[in-house]
Write a structure and sequence with these properties.
alpha+beta, single chain, seven-stranded antiparallel β-sheet, binds aspartic acid, about 700 residues, binds arginine
Length: about 700
């Protein structure tokens, strides 16, 4: 009890400054006075103003998963190297390997189109809670509630005034206690302009990923093209560089520890208000299972990549993305444990219960019939859902996510299931496109070994009641699958005739077996899980509402949901463990220190070493050193990659790309002492473009400012 109250007092002291407890804020609802107290010079209106140009007009959702920002009057777009990775890969061959060598378009003509890649700006944001919840009653079942909300969304979307080339979307916030509407503009012609070699853009690779101190030049450069009226348009050679309403000036004046900074972007998903029971399940049950599966898959892929150049290119992007969350989950579980997140969450729940009890001693409201039950009910529901969550993670990771032969078989089963649907032809076409893309980077030997290993694990770890006991997948099934083999030879030829293809698919033993695995999963796990999850969602929504009411001294921000947010903080080092302090910045000296000739993670181009030897840093050095990365207390998550880090005046000082190992649990529990975001210093980006790549035409487009002089 004593321990709890100490923790609790720590907890409450965080609440003093909103941002000290973390926070990803809706840009129309910023705490301007707090931001100014922390050092911001501009106004909230300069960050987001639907009526006139503001910083938000430079921020674009990149390909739906990352963030990017416009940094020139000609639509030059900056994002991470790992965000542009797939595009860089898609233009690469063994002869012209842009992943390895980098790519710099000499002129507009050589900027490379990327079918399917989009950049989305937010034009306006409106709170539409009242309209969306109109007609929703507490007596509704989840299903009825969802139906009603969906109808309201359709009506409101249809009635929203917007331009023909704009879109509308509505998203829930605060676990469905609030709804916001977004008017968006999506550009569809986004071309690759430049990328450093991976030895710079991915320096340190998976060893350094999620780690500090860091020395990665994780950036790539694209350009948005628009039609002659500056509007979104599908790719055409007649499109022209986009003229933005706003672009970010780049501050080359330098940064110091303690400087105010904010990050503006599209964080994907956080879950900051989960009960302790859910955090326990995550660290003890779910993360360990997922980590183990990926460890096995990665070990096999790695072995092949080391031996074969072609496989190395084919699997580079896949490997990085599987390894990325594998490593994150490890850090996250450790961080939750080390920061005492679960104990703190329990203490918080006790405080919540205490307040509810006090209130309800003198009150007889309907809340008082509900609030005291929330935590105990949630605890029970989490216990009930645990085996299903585990099974669902297992199915997703072992069958759906990490063995492509199984994924192909699942996809084919879906085709068979949908063959009589009205929208089948469109669906069939999409699957065809998807399989074509998949097979470009598929190696049957690699995948067979992964699939067999994961199948073995499925037998061992998936509880017997959740899998069919008469299905045995063997090496022969994978070798002899007509579908797998024919698709591998030629997707379009194989799928030319849907009737014939489906007839063949129905005969395929592998497809049949995976179909059974899926059916058992569907009936024994999936249905049950979603019905418990519905109840959990319902309780979490009420719990959120109750927290907002009962815990007024805590500042609540809505969980990330891939919508535009602002997070702010200060440039700051941290103490990862007793007696060790990590500085807020790194320099090119550290690249030289980590340099390992011939090593695929830590080799660097000779030219970079020469520039270091000659200290040829142009105007980009600070105190004689070339800055590379820095960290700050901004609360970021996946999706914030590529987000601009801005200074007190709204100039670009860095490019967000990662978080520090000890703080990766911030998706569930932000700890201001150790949660830090990692950024590439803007001057390192300029240095690479200017001095390394000799791409001065790009520097000339930008507006460089000395932030110190603006103060
Ligand atoms: N950890 C960063 C983020 O979650 C960077 C990932 C890319 N790098 C890598 N080595 N996989 O996306
Ligand atoms: N690296 C992440 C991204 O790609 C950012 C993070 O998780 O901190 O969005």
């Amino acid at each position: 009890m004593k321990k709890y109250s100490v923790l609790l007092s720590i907890f409450w002291s965080f609440a003093l400054f909103a941002q000290q407890g973390g926070g990803m804020w809706i840009p129309t609802e910023l705490n301007e006075s707090e931001m100014k107290d922390m050092g911001m010079h501009i106004s909230a209106k300069e960050i987001f103003n639907p009526k006139s140009a503001s910083i938000k007009d430079a921020i674009a959702h990149f390909g739906g998963g990352c963030t990017s920002e416009v940094i020139s009057p000609q639509g030059l777009l900056l994002t991470n190297h790992h965000c542009g990775y797939r595009q860089i890969q898609s233009h690469s061959t063994v002869e012209h390997n842009y992943l390895e060598e980098g790519y710099w378009a000499q002129d507009f003509e050589n900027e490379l189109p990327n079918p399917g890649l989009t950049a989305t700006f937010i034009v306006d944001i409106k709170d539409v809670t009242a309209k969306i919840l109109n007609g929703v009653s507490p007596d509704h079942t989840e299903q009825q509630r969802n139906d009603r909300i969906k109808d309201n969304i359709d009506i409101i979307s249809a009635n929203t005034v917007k331009e023909s080339y704009q879109d509308v979307m509505v998203r829930p916030f605060y676990k469905g206690n609030k709804y916001y509407l977004f008017i968006t503009e999506t550009f569809k012609d986004v071309r690759l302009v430049g990328a450093p070699p991976s030895s710079i853009g991915k320096f340190g690779s998976d060893t350094d990923n999620w780690m500090w101190p860091r020395h990665t030049g994780d950036f790539s450069v694209f350009r948005i093209y628009a039609d002659k009226n500056n509007r979104p348009a599908a790719y055409s050679k007649d499109n022209v560089p986009y003229t933005p309403k706003h672009y970010l000036p780049v501050n080359v004046g330098g940064i110091e520890e303690g400087d105010f900074t904010f990050v503006f972007g599209f964080p994907g998903m956080t879950d900051e208000y989960l009960p302790a029971a859910a955090l326990e399940q995550l660290t003890q049950k779910l993360n360990p299972a997922k980590i183990k599966i990926r460890e096995n898959a990665l070990g096999i892929i790695d072995k092949y990549m080391k031996d074969d150049e072609k496989i190395k290119i084919q699997y580079a992007s896949k490997y990085a993305s599987v390894a990325n969350y594998w490593k994150k989950w490890i850090g996250e579980s450790q961080g939750l444990e080390r920061s005492g997140a679960i104990e703190q969450r329990k203490a918080y729940e006790e405080e919540f219960m205490k307040r509810v009890k006090e209130r309800c001693m003198v009150e007889r409201s309907k809340e008082c019939a509900i609030y005291p039950q929330l935590i105990p009910t949630l605890n029970n529901l989490y216990k009930e859902i645990e085996p299903y969550n585990y099974a669902s993670d297992y199915f997703n990771e072992a069958i759906y996510r990490n063995a492509e032969s199984f994924r192909i078989a699942l996809t084919i089963n879906n085709l068979i299931d949908k063959q009589n649907d009205a929208d089948f032809p469109g669906y069939y076409k999409r699957v065809q496109g998807y399989l074509e893309g998949l097979y470009k980077n598929f190696n049957p030997s690699v995948d067979k070994e992964v699939a067999l290993r994961l199948w073995e694990m499925y037998q061992e770890d998936m509880p017997a009641e959740f899998r069919p006991n008469d299905v045995h997948i063997t090496e022969a099934d994978l070798n002899n699958s007509i579908i797998l083999n024919q698709l591998f030879t030629d997707v379009n030829q194989t799928m030319q005739n849907p009737k014939q293809f489906l007839a063949l698919a129905q005969q395929d033993a592998l497809a049949q077996k995976i179909g059974k695995v899926k059916d058992t999963y569907q009936t024994q796990v999936s249905n049950k899980k979603s019905s418990i999850q519905d109840q959990i969602d319902n309780q979490l929504r009420t719990y959120m509402q109750a927290q907002l009411e009962m815990m007024k001294d805590k500042k609540f921000f809505p969980d990330a949901n891939s919508t535009l947010r602002v997070t702010y903080g200060k440039v700051k080092g941290y103490e990862p463990k007793d007696g060790v302090y990590y500085d807020y910045k790194t320099t090119l000296k550290g690249v030289q220190e980590k340099y390992k000739p011939g090593d695929y993670e830590f080799d660097v181009p000779q030219k970079l070493l020469d520039l270091y030897q000659d200290q040829d840093y142009g105007t980009y050095a600070q105190d004689g050193e070339l800055p590379v990365n820095f960290i700050a207390t901004n609360h970021t998550t996946g999706g914030n990659s590529g987000s601009p880090a801005l200074d007190a005046d709204g100039n670009l000082i860095g490019l967000n790309f990662d978080r520090v190992w000890e703080g990766t649990m911030s998706d569930y529990h932000y700890d201001p002492e150790i949660s830090r975001n990692i950024m590439v210093d803007a001057r390192y980006i300029l240095f690479i473009i200017d001095k390394y790549a000799d791409a001065q035409r790009l520097i000339k487009e930008m507006k460089l400012v000395d932030g110190k002089k603006q103060k």
